[in-house]
Amino acid sequence: MINRLALIGLGLIGGSLSLALKERGLVGEVVGYSRQLQTRLRARELGLIDRPVDSAAEAVRGADVVFIATPVQAMASVFAEIGPELDPGALITDGGSVKGNVVAAAKLSLSPAQWGQFVPGHPIAGTERSGPDAAFATLFVDHRVILTPISENAPEMVTRAVDLWQSVGAIVEQMDVQHHDHVLAATSHLPHLAAFGLVSALSRLEERYEVFRYAAGGFRDFSRIASSDPQMWRDICVANRDELLPMLDHYLVELHRLRQLIEASDSAGVEKLFADAKAVRDALYRPATSQS
Amino acid sequence: MINRLALIGLGLIGGSLSLALKERGLVGEVVGYSRQLQTRLRARELGLIDRPVDSAAEAVRGADVVFIATPVQAMASVFAEIGPELDPGALITDGGSVKGNVVAAAKLSLSPAQWGQFVPGHPIAGTERSGPDAAFATLFVDHRVILTPISENAPEMVTRAVDLWQSVGAIVEQMDVQHHDHVLAATSHLPHLAAFGLVSALSRLEERYEVFRYAAGGFRDFSRIASSDPQMWRDICVANRDELLPMLDHYLVELHRLRQLIEASDSAGVEKLFADAKAVRDALYRPATSQS
Ligand SMILES: NC(=O)c1ccc[n+]([C@@H]2O[C@H](COP(=O)([O-])OP(=O)(O)OC[C@H]3O[C@@H](n4cnc5c(N)ncnc54)[C@H](OP(=O)(O)O)[C@@H]3O)[C@@H](O)[C@H]2O)c1
Ligand SMILES: NC(=O)c1ccc[n+]([C@@H]2O[C@H](COP(=O)([O-])OP(=O)(O)OC[C@H]3O[C@@H](n4cnc5c(N)ncnc54)[C@H](OP(=O)(O)O)[C@@H]3O)[C@@H](O)[C@H]2O)c1
């Protein structure tokens, strides 16, 4: 049971955690801060928070749990602001999609005594929608949440972070900060780059209006993630640059390989590459039943 | 009303056209040929065809409409086989995803007198599933079908092809063969390459098992088209090589542009590219309501 939750960043992730806790009666009061006044007011209107406040510092005062859910590059200034106001017994955790730079920011702005309180986390759940209106209480149910504890963490703080996510139905796993950033570069960040890049490339074609008229269901699914929030994804790509660029290069090598096979009209080679990819993809998901 | 329809290739596209015509009582008998005996038998079992036959030549004998729905690179030999048996009044049309090489194959294997009977077509409808079991009667309803008539076509043949598709609920458009192949390279063939390539690249990582465990909803949607039939897509990529490779190069340039922006930590530049892509994508489709 949380007495007072401080929520910093009142969008899809922050709002959904709050709704999930409230629905289960697991939190007393939720105090919320977000950059824009209108977001704070909307978050209260939607019942995501009980009390909007004017700064992150004010939000954390007296809170026993602090959850930070802003875009990752904004977290450095959040840590700097809340550091002096944190209760020494408070659990601090976050939902950022990149962990290395968030941990670095926390260590820079929090006192070494506070490092032990910060348990970094990342829920592997989301949609391409954002803002307070996108939040819903069941977002995390049966989804993985990766925690990347740091060596300074007090074991009790890690346990509290695990309990927090399990209490809203998530499956909690733990891994290294760097390993997290590597795996997510492959599975999430690179696909987003590929989709944003493809839509961007097509929109540079002179005949783009004509081209997009003939986009079918396959394109709709493929490009859905290019509808994601540009600011959030800008932050992720820049924050995880060191893992993302080698992964992008790996993809570029593969596209060049495919290019050569097609240029040589090597039907067998192209088919093998496609068939191997299909086998991997089909093994990941049960056969689709929907007609898309 | 079609008296006898010859169906060559008994998978998703051919089977769906037949089911749609049958359901509406628009066809007398459907005679079907497909490479494998088991496919022919299954197609009869499912009611896609009334009578399986042992060759494409046998299928077209006495047919007033011939529909070819094999992978595109198989069409050359189909034309060669059926040429001598075609009724001079028969409409010949196809559902191949590439048109340039299909027209070339038709001109090579049909007699010039028969060129006028062949009206090339491409339904912009499909799923990632294939084979006779994937067929369903409503596949083409409210979907576009592009016809790419050739100069030799008798106007009556074009009209009959238009009527055929409209009678099953499709929206028929006409364009140039080459323009078709250019537009579809952008909208359909390149996205498939990008998705197959990405899954393939990830599956080459040593840590692939670990990586794929953390694939979330965005990856599922993005990679759905990498579950498509490898043989069909091999054929499309090789057949449309001349339009596809420049389009792939255009994509590679865009990915390199993104790479540079990220390498320079140019947050504003990355955000602008993402925001422009999102705006284009959002304008194409109504806001998604599903949580994926
Ligand atoms: N969406 C996903 O699929 C997903 C999944 C897992 C993790 N994440 C991570 O979760 C975090 C939040 O993502 P989200 O999807 O919830 O994004 P979101 O819906 O856009 O919400 C982010 C919120 O942060 C606020 N904000 C932005 N800059 C701020 C600042 N400097 N100080 C205080 N508040 C600020 C925004 O409110 P204003 O209107 O006030 O600017 C917005 O309400 C990100 O770090 C993201 O990487 C996202
Ligand atoms: N799927 C889509 O999204 C889509 C959309 C628009 C257009 N198209 C085009 O439509 C055509 C058919 O695609 P589809 O999705 O229906 O594929 P499909 O479900 O795999 O069906 C193709 C059929 O052709 C048969 N076949 C293969 N090689 C043959 C040959 N040499 N002679 C005779 N039959 C042969 C296969 O049967 P066996 O078991 O006998 O080999 C199979 O039943 C392709 O040209 C494709 O480009 C597909």
UniProtKB/TrEMBL annotation, chains A, B:
Top-rank lineage group of the source organism? Bacteria
Which Pfam family is one of this chain's hits?
A: PDH_C
Q: What is this protein called?
A: prephenate dehydrogenase
Its EC number is: 1.3.1.12
| Keywords noted in UniProt | Amino-acid biosynthesis, Aromatic amino acid biosynthesis, NAD, Oxidoreductase, Tyrosine biosynthesis
Domain (Prephenate/arogenate dehydrogenase) spans 3-292
Organism this protein belongs to? Halothiobacillus neapolitanus (strain ATCC 23641 / DSM 15147 / CIP 104769 / NCIMB 8539 / c2)
Q: Which SUPFAM superfamilies match?
A: 6-phosphogluconate dehydrogenase C-terminal domain-like, NAD(P)-binding Rossmann-fold domains
